[in-house]
Amino acid sequence: MLTRLLLHLLLLLVVAPLLPGIITRTKAVISGRQGAPLLQLYRDIWKLLRKGMVLSTTTTWVFRAGPVVGLAVPILAALLLPFGAIGAPLSFSGDLILFVYLFGLARFFTVLAAMDTGSSFEGMGAAREVTFSCLAEPTIFIAFIVLARISGSLSLDGMYGALLVSGHTLHGATGITLPLTAISLFIVLLAENSRIPFDDPNTHLELTMIHEVMVLDHSGPDFAFILYGSAMKLFVMGALVVNLLLPLASQNQPADVGLFIVAMVILAIAVGLVESAMARLRLIRIPQLLVGTSLLSLFALILLLR
Amino acid sequence: MDILFVSLALLVGGGFLSLALGWSSKLSRLAGMWSGVAGGVVGLWACIDLVRAGASQTFAIPWPTAGITIALHVDTLALFFLAPIFLLTLACAVYATSYLHATTRGGQYAYHWFFFNLLAASMALVVIAANGLFFLVAWEIMALSSFFLVTYDYANEEVRRAGWLYLIATHCGTVFLFMFFLLCAGQCGSFDFVAFTALKTLPQTMTMLLFGLALIGFGTKAGLFPLHVWLPDAHPAAPSHVSALMSGVMIKTGIYGIMRMLTWLAPLPAWGGAVIFTLGIIGALFGIAMAAGQTDIKRSLAFSSVENIGIIFLGIGVSLFASAIGQPAIAVLAMTGAMLHIWNHALFKGLLFLGAGSLIHATTTRELSLMGGLLRRMPITGSLVIAGSLAICALPPLNGFVSEWFIYLGLLKMGQVSSGSIALLAMLLVVFLALVGGLVLITFSRLVGIALLGEPRCPEAASAHEAHWTMLTPMAVLMACCLLFGLYPALVLRTVSRVVDLLLPGSHLAAAVGQGEPLSSMGRLATLLLVCITTLVMLRWQRAAKVRRMPTWGCGFPLVNTRMAYTAGGYAELAQRSLLCVCLQPKVAIAPPVGLFPQASRLTMAAHDLMFSRFFQPLFRHVADRAITCRGLQAGLLHIYILYIFIATALLLGLVLLPL
To answer: Which of A102, A152, A294 minimises the CB distance to B416?
Structure first.
């Protein structure tokens, strides 16, 4: 139990900041640039942690709470989720609801921290964040229902664990359902982590930004928390997809860990490829894509029920 | 039981004393306030005492002249509703002392406290009444006293209109209740609730008729969609502590009525449950979508009450549906969620209405877009409102999450074990509930973000001061309950599971729910979350780097002013226009910028209640148009009226004498 917990935390805390680096590097390689070092985010976080910060005279404790909650939530959510064949340290029937609502908590505080600055620019980002996530949330629930129905369990650990145990026997029964679910989860991953085609994490100052404008006024250690938190969120959401696509378990724990890290790296490269191949969507198209994703996952569900 | 009588006597006696002392506003205020507080405290004590005593207790005095039995009956269901009634009465009475101080003209204290105490006592009587006629009397006192409390500020035209609408709506509902109780009594031969057990043997058509009557009658009071139309007008019109009391517990008496009715009738067929959860989920979606579009803080909260009532009905409906199709485990989960949500909503909606009252008190406006920057000026009130918003958004580690978790779990289990269309139905409900969750987040992040954060948008907001401690304490107590129930749900679940056992007889699964392993894990995780956050805060504290204070960056624009901050309308615009435009049809007036050097441009949006303007208003206008033809009967001549009396007597005589 304790070793599991430590292993989980270690994986999350150490590997998470690698993913954004891999995405950036993939994009750079595709566009023929050299790109930033893979470990750039680690350096950024370290540097920011030692810096001073500027606080707006308008802000209150809410502004400082946003980054802290944003960092605490992915850590807790990760404890509910298995990483590949490594089981979740904490698990109970119905923890998938807690998983979704924990991210709601982080969103609430991030949005409030943005509103706290009183800047209209950040208000704009906050309004978009809550509106779009309101559409992304049902998709996650449908994906979880599909898994719950296939596995007969209502905990994340049980749901993904059942895929590991009976991966091949499920093959015929579920058919196209699992791939469709994986695709919709991947799209939600892009939306929730503000990646292209929903949002572009590299441009802070455009009117179409969502997540990046909300953290515009944060600096120093607070900003380090935000960067670290969003890297961990990417890692946790990525694990949702990876667990689904690669239900492989060796009996050897180090091999499992290695396998999971490799899978996450591949996922990051895939995100990088998507970002290189696509442009950002127009803002009014985003709700349509998200509703489409919900419908896709609902379709997967209907196929399962038939 | 005796202690309960003391509490009721304190409330009623104090109310009349306050009225009698009306010549001195100071004395009547003291009398009203202290009797309200004492009534609340003694009432809570009575609740604890009755829980300890365990078995249900009864009390009856027949009053043959009036044809009524004053019968009272305290069982687990009644106790479950009594506790929040006394808690909120206490909280609101304490809050009202300084809240009313600034706004009341001389002589009005007496009326206010009279009706306030009467409302508290009548709500308690409604849930412990054990006789149909006595119940209706208590119900009517409750409706009238709350009407007078809503129209407290009667000099205001808008308030009179809201009060009028409430009075009509509540009486339309009561008509159905009269029919319901008359039919029940006709079938059982007595108005006593004890005799109503005979209803279990009725044929199914009769059962469904009674169910329909009760659903309309009690649903009107509860604010069940589409009968909620009075609610969004009445709550903003009433003083804030009255809104808290009404929204927190008075509308719950409607739910109590439906619960009580369910214990009398034979188990409903599956479609009865389906009707309830369909209305519930539509009400939840409609209510919260409307709440997201309101710029009046109390109107937004009132619509959110419609949403929460919808969630409670969703849980009840799913539970009835599941027990009808033979899934008792799911029925218990959904019912537990619904019952828990009744308490939770009383706590956090009470907190939010009181908080909104403090904000309105400080800024003298209800308009969200005129507030702003209040958290820095009223740190305690602001933080309490933020905590209430967290709870109502069902975010862990507060109590709202626990009740919604049970409802979700019931639905997920139903989607998991049942087959085909029922599974799909359950899953669609999950999706809609998730959508409701997202919209709640929009509504309350907007409420907090616009009203409390940023810069003040009007001079009153800029000069706002922290509320008096008598206003803060009740809110703090409610907040503490929210946190406690969120961290240790097992505390309340024992009580809840007893009620669930009463409502779903024969399942005996309810007790298991309260002690389940998931709950303790959830509580542990919620605690872990708090620990994790505290650790991170401490870590950051230790590394405290140099902090400089600067104004917010204005995106390169040097002349930033507060008029440029995001407004309530702007915040919800995206959601309203891109997601909800079709079903809500908000009125949008837009004057876009034109020309090379654009002058002033404006955008106004208003979300009106479509049910009211498209359905009820035309309906009532139609009825009024038809009814006008009957005016000829009212000739105003005495001999015509005597003729009417004569005709009526003759007809009755004929009816009696003729052997029909």
So the answer is: A152
Subunit contact A118:B548, Cβ cutoff 8 A: no
DSSP, collapsed to helix, strand or coil, labels residue A94 as coil
Instruction: Provide the token pair at B450.
Output: 């616009």
Please give the residue of chain B at the shortest CA–CA distance from A107.
B441
H or E, element range at B179: helix B157-188
Nearest to B22 by CA among B32, B7, B11, B35: B32
For residue B523, give both structure tokens.
Answer: 């509580």
> B57: which strand partners?
B74
| Residues belonging to chain B | 660
Q: Where are the domains of chain A?
A: 2-305
- Joined together, the tokens standing for residue B128 give 């412990």
Q: State ipTM.
A: 0.94
Helix axes B420-451, B270-293, angle to 10 degrees: 20
Q: What is the pLDDT of residues B330-385, one digit of tens each?
A: 888 899 899 999 999 999 999 999 999 999 988 888 888 888 889 999 999 999 99
Phi first, then psi: give them for residue B129, nearest 5 degrees. Answer: -65, 140
Cβ–Cβ of A58/B373 closer than 8 Å?
Answer: yes
> Is the distance from CB of B216 to CB of B261 less than 8 angstroms?
no
**Test mutation, B441, B573, B579, chain A, max A CBs within 10 A:** B441
- String of DSSP letters for B575-614: HHHHTSHHHH--EEEEE---SSS----EEEEE---HIIII
Nearest CA among B230, B307, B320, B311 for reference residue B275:
B320
Write down the pTM of the prediction: 0.93
For residues B372 and B460, give the distance between their C-alpha atoms in angstroms, rounded to a whole number: 10
Cβ contact (<8 Å) for A60 and B518?
no
Chain B interface mutation, best of A50, A68, A100, A134, highest count of B Cβ atoms under 10 Å? A134
CA angle B606–B609–B611, rounded 5-degree value: 155
Under a CB-based contact definition with an 8 Å cutoff, are residues B329 and B602 in contact? Answer: no
Average pLDDT (B429-446) is: 92
The DSSP secondary structure of B612-625, one letter per residue, reads: IIIIIHHHHHHHHH
- Residue among B316, B309, B305 at smallest CA distance from B275: B316
Return the bridge partners of A53, or none. B547
For the record, the structure tokens of B17 come out as 């004393």
pLDDT over threshold 90, residue B609: no
Say which amino acid occupies A230: S
Using a CB-CB cut-off of 8 Å, the residues of chain B touching A298 are 431
